[in-house]
């Protein structure tokens, strides 16, 4: 093989390697991100993609939907809606940059919500917290690329201030930034304990009065008879005191 032929061969080989690398990178860039829809959750709950990316919402368990809030997507975007599905998946291509908040129709009330940031954050979703649950802050989503369901990004990582999860942003007793959590119940608990203490005290007082000496309301004759029956005085003393009582006198106490 001549030197020229060798150079041609090496050139073709190198060009093929470069082309192969370019095709591999392009295929990698075009991989479809997948959001799993499980028992009351989207995973990842926060996802960052570039404009023109197709995202697949895929059933992991149960029956769910991926439905955009019409008032929480970029103004030039169309609202996507998979409808309720129980198998397979749904794909949507995000063309317009901005922030997209979405929810599951059957499980919206228990906080099954998610957020996708396309390119840079923006749009109505950035103006107020999501109403039906918690999603990560858009800046955290862009920085991390994807935030898995159930993770906590701290006080600045969630639009609701709590751990990501369905129903964990607004229910009573939850420790998050939008309510007082368990501590709000302390005055009620204290009042209940105080009432129980008062009732217990009244019962103790009533039972104590019931245990008082039965002699307190008895007549002198009844008292004398009981003392004799208990052997505290002999028969002679009993007769002497009884005669004294019958004649209208008082008996001296011993």
Automatic annotation (TrEMBL):
Domain SHOCT: 221-245
Principal place of residence: membrane
Domain of life, per lineage: Archaea
GO cellular component term, pick one: membrane
Start and end residues of each Blue (type 1) copper domain: 39-118
Cofactor info, note text: Binds 1 copper ion per subunit.
Keywords, sorted A to Z: Copper, Electron transport, Membrane, Metal-binding, Periplasm, Transmembrane, Transmembrane helix, Transport
Compositional bias of kind Basic and acidic residues: 229-247
Keyword Transport: yes
Coiled-coil segments on the chain, per record: none
Cofactors required: Cu cation
Molecular function in Gene Ontology: metal ion binding
InterPro entries on file: Amicyanin/Pseudoazurin, BlueCu_1, BlueCu_1_BS, Cupredoxin, SHOCT, TAT_signal
Binding sites annotated in the UniProt record for Cu cation: 64, 104, 107, 112
Protein name (record): Plastocyanin/azurin family copper-binding protein
């Amino acid at each position: 093989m001549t030197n020229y032929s060798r150079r041609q061969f090496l050139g073709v080989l190198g060009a093929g390697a470069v082309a192969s690398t370019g095709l591999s990178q392009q295929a990698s860039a075009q991989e479809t991100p997948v959001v799993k829809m499980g028992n009351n959750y989207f995973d990842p709950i926060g996802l960052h993609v570039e404009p023109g990316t197709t995202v697949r919402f895929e059933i992991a368990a149960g029956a769910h939907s991926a439905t955009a809030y019409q008032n929480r997507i970029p103004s030039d975007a169309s609202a996507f809606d998979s409808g309720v599905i129980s198998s397979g998946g749904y794909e949507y291509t995000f063309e317009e940059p901005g922030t997209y908040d979405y929810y599951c129709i059957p499980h919206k009330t228990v906080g099954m919500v998610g957020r996708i940031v396309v390119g840079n954050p923006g749009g109505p979703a950035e103006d107020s917290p999501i109403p039906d649950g918690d999603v990560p802050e858009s800046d955290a989503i862009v920085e991390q690329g994807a935030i898995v369901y159930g993770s906590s990004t701290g006080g600045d990582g969630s639009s609701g201030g709590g751990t990501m999860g369905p129903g964990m942003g607004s229910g009573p007793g939850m420790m998050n930034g939008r309510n007082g959590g368990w501590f709000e119940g302390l005055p009620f608990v204290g009042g209940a304990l105080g009432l129980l203490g008062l009732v217990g005290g009244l019962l103790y007082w009533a039972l104590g009065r019931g245990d008082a000496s039965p002699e307190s309301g008895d007549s002198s004759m009844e008292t004398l008879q009981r003392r004799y029956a208990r052997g505290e005085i002999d028969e002679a003393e009993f007769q002497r005191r009884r005669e004294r009582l019958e004649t209208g006198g008082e008996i001296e106490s011993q």
